[in-house]
Amino acid sequence: MMQLQKFTLAILLVVLNITGAMAQATTSGEVSEIKAEKPNKGVFLIPFQTKMYISDINKEISERTRMNHTQIAEKFRSALDQNLYIALKENWQPISLYQLPIEQARKEFAYIYSSIGYKYVEVPEEENTAETKTQQTWKKLKQKIASTEEEHSKGEPEKYMQTKITNPNLLSVLFASYNTNYFIFINQLDIKRAVGETSQGNAYANKREMVVHYTIFDKNGNIVKSGVAKSYFSKNVNDINQIIKQNFPVIAKYIADKFLEAVTSAASGK
After folding, report:
1. Are 213 and 254 in contact (CB under 8 A)?
2. Do the beta carbons of residue 252 and residue 84 sit within 8 Å?
3. Sorting pLDDT into bands at 50, 70 and 90, what band is 205?
4. Which of 178, 223, 235, 252 could form a disulfide with 83 if both were Cys (CB 3.0 to 4.6 A apart)?
5. Considering the entire predicted model, what is its pTM?
């Protein structure tokens, strides 16, 4: 009986030692996993300046909303920033200036805008639009519209507004403050009047065009992606909330997808 008890005790001690060793190994693995450096997925969002909002339909929006130009521009600016934040957060860790305390945000806006400039460059061939199937149909129909403006511009490359960094310390300062590896600048927002609003008798000329110009830098000042995102909406829509709802989600998703595509391609060495 005594021998059986000793044998049982010996087995128990062996089991405890094995369990303890396993626990140590597991704990060690967990600790090293926690200490492992994670990739920096921080993205800093810089909205367009209100002076970079250019619209052919501001009068119609103002009459509908009773808002002045600056108020309309600010609403579009904050709404686009919000939609871009939402589109990015699935894969990234976006930081918006609108998240900051008001005084801090004002200082950052002033510092950033005084540190950049703009230049017109040709739109990349693959960079066309953030369009839905309905909007793609409109695009095909639009090509059939014979207008003086289109004939005049035929053959001329499309250009867009690109951000250029004039203060060499800008990105390093923002990186030090917010630990973000990437910076998405929304450079300009254009809303163009539908052809049908200035010409009669064309059933297809009933869509307005929204164009968002953007440039994405890494923390070293290299351009990761730059171009335009486009969307189309009815010439009868003048409610600012409806314009935002119909266009900003698809534009934001397009920019987020292009950003992810560019970063993934660079990481794989393509």
Report:
1. no
2. yes
3. low
4. 252
5. 0.77
